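Handout, section B. The chain below has 53 residues.
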Amino acid sequence: MENRPRSVRTAREPDPPDLDRYAGYDDGDERVVCDRRDARAWIRSDTVVTLDP
């Protein structure tokens, strides 16, 4: 039997989001964020955090 090293995944920082890809609007007390490339991809949140570009 031959011993071969297995590939090991290394942790890395995720790529920053492409902020031009997303659009958002206020809906009452909540914020809705939509993916401009896929109209089915959206999220509604009642907590908003601003990201520095």
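Note. The chain is about 0% helix and 40% strand. Compare this with the example in section A.
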